[in-house]
Specification:
Layout: H1 33-43, H2 51-54, E1 57-65, E2 70-79, E3 82-94, E4 97-102, H3 122-132, E5 143-147, E6 150-153, E7 163-171, E8 177-186, E9 193-199, E10 205-210, E11 212-214, E12 253-256, E13 270-273, E14 304-308, E15 327-328, H4 342-361, E16 387-397, E17 400-403, E18 412-421, E19 427-429, E20 436-438, E21 459-465, H5 483-486, E22 490-494, H6 500-509, E23 514-518, E24 547-550, H7 552-563, E25 569-572, E26 577-580, H8 585-600, H9 617-628, H10 696-718, H11 730-744, H12 751-766, H13 771-780, E27 828-831, E28 838-843, E29 849-856, E30 861-868, E31 872-876, E32 883-891, E33 894-902
Parallel strand pairs: 3-7, 12-15, 14-16, 16-18, 21-22, 22-23, 23-24
Antiparallel strand pairs: 1-2, 2-3, 3-4, 5-6, 6-7, 7-8, 8-9, 9-10, 11-17, 12-13, 17-18, 18-26, 19-20, 19-25, 21-25, 27-28, 28-31, 29-30, 29-32, 32-33
Helix pairs in contact: 4-8, 8-9, 9-10, 10-11, 10-13, 11-12, 12-13
């Protein structure tokens, strides 16, 4: 295996320049220049670069990492002083030598450049973009600063901030470098933050991305169980809320869903006191001047300003005031209009942004690395970029957005409300021993269905058990004989031998004001949760009364009581309400995670490094959310959904990803090959192909799956530590290695580059103690040593591979575990996989007599075959059912397991 831990190129001119300002002086000489020049002279052939490709390089940013003691240099390639867009490579220095280099430079640039003289001016480029993106007419647009090929224009009435413009070369799909203007415009309504490349010759827009990452959290509400479930654990959080040795005593307290609680579905709120970390937020969460004492008593401070934005105008909105005591302990009744609980909602949003800031600060997302702070307290970086966090944003529904501009400019978080969720307990019994709320199902809707569900208008009446005078009178399958008792009452009907439409029709004809349908005594068909019941059908005339469906366990006692002559008064009402995304800590941390991965990949001055097709931003963000909500009671095989609360699901819901996150391959069998959107699209647990789109969310989900497996591999080895700030458990170790990996990878990374950066981070942190563990996890999900990402901009050329590196590889010398025993797995080829006929085991040397056994996902043996393994052994699986299996090969000189899929 070829190593990439010590790669390099040379640069002759080195500059340090902000992406949006010109306040920093050019750095003409670096103390590392001689080191990199010397190493490049020995290794330049590795990257197929010509001298003209590397003789004009700038240092865009230099960052020191405290954990690894690496100095990260983010290097931009130029041609005749003009930057090549996103040609940013990452180089790391340790002990005065090059430790790691991740290349993202363009080779043979002189032959690809179309021109060095623009036909459009920078101002004309802005006007073209404004026209083509329908941003309106510019007003008072003027150039306020110029340095070289960089300009800064006033906002021109089309942008929330001044407009930076620079001349660049853009590498198009035909591998040509087109002279272009690169500019960014944050639209006045705040909904988009366009980063645009416009052809400097023709004026055509040739590339645009949106820094406002819109996560499209909305799932298919028709497919989900909309139960409001509260899996409340012990209210005493295992999460380390504050450091008792903190010198910052400001008396602040916040009543919030404190981590690791993910949402109201997962637990109760609790009061946290002085939670600011003394290293990350040394003056507390309400400071901005670096002097003891809060500057703000509202939900605003050095790291975030949280406010409401109901009108969706991205302006200054309401923020809760904790008074001089900084007491943000507000009452909450969550089952009502969100407008009535803005104080606790925005407080939770403020808390989560600050906690995310403080936690990940400890792992290296600090001032030098481009974190989000107004005042950097003299610790490097630019500052002036705390997060604007808008709660209950009125500009959209069922979504969340995070916009990350380059360092020194404020990012924006927008949290929305979510579509109404039906009241899970529409039935309330008001009198007698059965009094209380009851879970019930609503009638499913569809074409031709006019069965009516309860509305927000309550219906209160006594209950009446129907009778049609038949052998099963409570089923109401014919005209009601006790119509005079049902008239004006809520009819109670047993499910039975006729359609729901007929039952409801007869009850309505008898004058019933509503219907309660009770399930029959069938344990296999007795729902104890809310689901939409298919009571579909048409009636003439249409129904005017609502109906609900309750299970046998709740319904039969009501029937028994009515048969005993009891008078039961009840109310049926659907108090449907919207859910507030600011209470879903998983979503808030996911959004904040976009800011972390964007600032760390390619350096904090470049916000375009996660815009390529194979980028894994959504996967990192899911992983950030999973990590901060991980609890000591959790196990690797647990099923973890994303955004279950906001999406109207229970805590055990699937969430908004293809399947839940888990290490259980029978529940989540996605591997690297699933990222190809025109070939292998993934398989369900029965081995059947599953079609899915090529969105960044599903691509990221595969990366998130690998990181989640990696997390549990670390926890299995090192244990779990609930202290997310200073803990030493496997969860803490994997948090560190992922952050350091983000810093090491190049601009526009693919999965393989992301894998290699994590391996390199382990080398820097531990000398390679966990190389085997990391390889095992990645190889298991198809990112083995021979995996290929192809071009990270193309989503059809990925090649998965499940093989481990050679056990004699020097990088594995410090490993303590390796699952491949006594042989080199690259000697094996198992194909075709997936298969529907035969499995071939091909080897390039003899392993003697072996036994090949196929196990299902529950460990049951389904097929076994023995024989000599010296060329090809073939297993016939014609009679094996479709699904995922483990092929075990055992012999004197071999012991291995390999995942196979039978179609």
């Amino acid at each position: 295996m070829k190593k990439h831990y010590l790669y390099l190129f040379v640069f002759l001119s080195m500059f340090l320049m902000s992406a949006t300002t010109f306040s920093q002086d050019l750095l003409l000489n670096s103390k590392y220049q001689a080191i990199v020049e010397d190493y490049f002279n020995q290794n330049k052939e590795e990257f197929n670069l010509l001298e003209n490709d590397f003789n004009d390089i700038v240092i865009d940013k230099e960052v020191f990492s405290k954990s690894t003691k690496l100095t990260h240099l983010y290097l931009n390639q130029r041609y005749q002083g003009i930057e090549i867009f996103n040609a940013t490579s990452s180089l790391a220095i340790k002990d005065n030598s090059v430790f790691y280099y991740a290349n993202n430079f363009v080779a043979n640039i002189a032959s690809k450049v179309n021109s060095t003289s623009p036909q459009l001016t920078a101002e004309e480029a802005i006007l073209e973009v404004a026209t083509k993106l329908n941003l309106g007419s510019t007003i008072g647009l003027e150039n306020i600063e110029k340095k070289g090929f960089r300009y800064l224009f006033s906002n021109g009435g089309i942008s929330k901030s001044d407009i930076p413009v620079k001349l660049v070369f853009f590498l198009d799909e035909e591998n040509n470098l087109k002279l272009s203007w690169d500019l960014s415009i944050h639209t006045i309504d705040g909904q988009d933050w366009w980063s645009v490349r416009i052809d400097a010759l023709s004026g055509d827009i040739i590339d645009k991305t949106n820094w406002m990452v819109k996560c499209s959290f909305e799932g298919d509400h028709e497919l989900h169980n909309h139960e409001i479930e509260n899996n409340i654990k012990d209210n005493t959080s295992t999460f380390k809320l504050f450091n008792e040795e903190s010198f910052m005593v400001d008396g602040s307290q916040y009543n919030v869903f404190a981590l690791p609680i993910e949402s109201p579905n997962h637990g109760d709120r609790s009061l946290v006191i002085e939670p600011a970390d003394p290293l990350a937020s040394p003056y507390g969460w309400h400071d901005v001047n670096g002097v003891s004492g809060a500057e703000y008593t509202i939900t605003r401070g050095n790291n975030v300003w949280a406010q409401e934005d109901i009108n969706g105008n991205d302006g200054t909105g309401y923020s809760p005031d904790g008074t001089n005591n900084l007491n943000f302990d507000f009452n909450l009744n969550i089952n009502q209009d969100p407008n009535s609980y803005q104080d606790p909602s925005i407080t939770n949003l403020f808390y989560m942004n600050n906690v995310m800031h403080d936690i990940w600060y400890k792992y290296g997302f600090d001032e030098e690395s481009g974190n989000f702070q107004e005042n950097n307290y003299g610790n490097g970086g630019l500052g002036g970029d705390y997060v604007y966090a808008d709660g209950q944003d009125g500009s959209s529904l069922n979504n969340a957005v995070f916009g990350t501009p380059p360092e020194g400019t404020n990012p924006y978080m927008q949290m929305y409300l979510w579509s109404e969720v039906d009241d899970p307990q529409p039935l309330t019994i008001n009198t007698g021993s059965l009094a209380g709320g009851y879970t019930a199902s609503y009638p499913a809707t569809g074409p031709g269905n006019n069965i009516t569900a309860p509305s927000s208008t309550p219906i209160t009446a006594d209950l009446a058990l129907v009778s049609d005078g038949s052998a099963n009178p409570e089923e109401g399958c014919s005209a009601l004989s006790n119509w005079f008792l049902v008239n004006g009452k809520i009819a109670v009907i047993k499910r039975g031998n006729c359609s729901f439409v007929e039952k409801i029709q007869f009850a309505q004809n008898a004058g019933a004001v509503a219907v309660i349908m009770v399930n029959h005594n069938n344990p296999d068909n007795d729902p104890n949760y809310v689901e939409y019941v298919n009571m579909a059908g048409e009636s003439t005339p249409e129904f005017t009364i609502p109906s609900i469906f309750i299970n046998y366990d709740n319904g039969q006692p009501i029937i028994n009581s009515l048969q005993n002559g009891d008078v039961i008064n009840a109310t049926i009402v659907n108090n449907a309400f919207r859910r507030d995304g600011s209470f879903d800590n998983g979503i808030v941390s996911h959004e904040y995670g976009h800011g972390i991965s964007t600032r760390l990949t390619g350096g904090p001055n470049n916000s375009n490094c996660l815009q390529n097709g194979e980028q894994m931003g959504e996967g990192w963000s899911d992983w950030f959310a999973l990590m901060v909500t991980l609890d000591s009671d959790d196990v690797a095989e647990d099923l973890r959904g994303i955004a279950t609360y906001a999406d109207g699901q229970s805590a055990a819901g699937v969430g908004i990803r293809p399947v839940q996150y888990t290490t259980d391959m029978s529940a989540n069998n996605y591997t690297y090959g699933a990222t190809n959107n025109d070939t292998l699209l993934g398989y369900d647990t029965n081995g059947n192909p599953v079609n899915w789109n090529d969105s960044v969310h599903n691509i990221g989900f595969v990366w998130g799956t690998v990181l989640w497996d990696l997390t549990w591999a670390y926890i299995d080895k090192y244990g779990f530590d609930p202290d997310l700030y200073n803990g030493t458990g496997g969860n803490n170790k994997v948090m560190q290695i992922v952050i350091d990996g983000l810093k090491l990878q190049p601009c526009s990374p693919g999965f393989v580059q992301g894998r290699d950066a994590i391996l390199a981070a382990d080398m820097a942190l531990t000398g390679g103690e966990d190389q085997c563990l990391i390889w095992e996890v990645f190889a298991n999900r198809g990112l083995g040593v021979n995996a290929s990402q192809g071009f990270p901009t193309i989503m059809t050329d990925q090649v998965e591979d499940f093989t481990m590196p050679d056990e004699n590889d020097p990088s594995l010398a410090n490993c303590t575990t390796l699952s491949v025993n006594e042989f080199n797995q690259s000697d094996f080829k198992i194909y075709p996989n997936p298969t529907d006929n035969n499995i071939n085991i091909k080897v390039n040397r003899s392993f003697g007599n072996v036994k090949a056994t196929l196990f299902d996902i529950n460990g049951r043996k389904v097929l076994s075959q023995s024989g000599e393994l010296n060329n090809i052994m073939t297993l016939n699986v014609n009679n094996v059912q479709s699904g995922i299996y483990v092929l075990n090969i055992e012999g004197t000189n071999v012991s291995m397991n390999h995942k196979v899929i039978i179609k």
